[in-house]
Description:
Elements: E1 31-36, H1 47-59, E2 63-67, H2 79-95, E3 100-106, H3 108-117, H4 123-127, E4 128-134, E5 146-147, E6 178-181, H5 208-223
Parallel strand pairs: 1-2, 1-3, 3-4, 4-6, 5-6
GO molecular function: carboxylic ester hydrolase activity
Keywords: Disulfide bond, Hydrolase, Signal
Protein name: Cutinase
Amino acid sequence: xxxxxxxxxxxxxxxSSAAPVEERQTQCSAYTLINTRGTGESQGESSGFRTxxxxxxxxxxxxxxxxxxxxxxFSQNSASGTRDIVNRVGIILRSNPNACxxxxxxxxxxxxxxxxxxxxxxxxxxxxxxxxxxxxPKHKSxxxxxxxxxxxxxxxxxxxxxxxxxxxxxxxxxxxxTLDVCNYGDGVCDTTHGRGINAEHLEYPRxxxxxRLSTNYIVGRLRGTA
Length: 226
């Protein structure tokens, strides 16, 4: 899943599959945005999340950004990214057991984030208050967390290029606190209407609606209002 830009997202969607009920969390006083970039982006904050992260931190105090360390290479081997996400969550909680965490991932970074979910259990699971994914190659049809670029349902029932009946995808207990944004026609997450790395796959950073929805979603998760 190529990627030189990144993406941002928004609102909640309805689905034919039921999502687990989740307890409303209290507002976070300290939090970390763990940002996992896409293929080809230089080590650092993904271009797709810079604006939304800046907006979130201006609205909710106590925030910091951690940029997942991994190659983000064209080999699409994101295993080291998954390990770094899991390790970083542990480091954060050892320093502050009450810290809140938001996971963000674009394209290959979204795949690495999805793979980390099943390894984040107990206190680590509880600490993650929300997950934001863009152009997710493991996007699976019918999940309640699936939204399009407007927070709607046009990509509710599509599959990504790495999704199959045999792939785990987003675990059921994570669906209620995940927003899996797939731009209609993005060939990485929407193989029904698009093919491969196309303009739709690179649209996330430039979309005003996605930026606004993304900010609102994360702020709501941190404040315990969403």
